[in-house]
Amino acid sequence: MGHLYYGTTPEPVRIPDRLLSHLKVVVATKLRRSESFTVSWTHVDGAPGRSTLWLQPAIPLRFVFDSAEPEQLDARTLKDMADMANSSAGLVIALDAEIPASAVAARTPAPTPAARRAAMRTAA
Question: How large is the average pLDDT for residues 63-67?
Answer without folding.
Answer: 94
